[in-house]
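Re: beginner question about structure tokens

> Can someone show what the tokenized structure looks like for a real chain? I only ever see the sequence side.

Sure, here's an example I had lying around. Input first:
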Amino acid sequence: MSLIEAFFTQTADIKPFVRQGAGEAVYGPIATRSCRIEMGAHMMTTYKHPDGQIDHVEARAKMFCVGEKIPADSIVTYDGEDYTVLDCKVMRGFGFSHLEVYLM
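And the corresponding structure tokens:
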């Protein structure tokens, strides 16, 4: 266990986005991860759509966790509320890495 994982006292269910199929989103199996979620304002991310358009979006929450990168458009359920993943960034430091996930 890395040092940062000691701060992950919350849990969230993640339904990973796989692809669009027949006009609907297709998701993978739900996984539960330990995390830390920050709510509030002034959480902005810049991300690039697959079509090349760049967006600056203010997120409703930011989640910190470890594990595999979470695809954009995945669904995160925390405390009974669903959030959509805007962007997931891998942050590296001190020999380990963690994810910063911006939620809408």
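Each token stands for a local structural state, so reading them left to right follows the chain. The chain has a mean pLDDT of 87.
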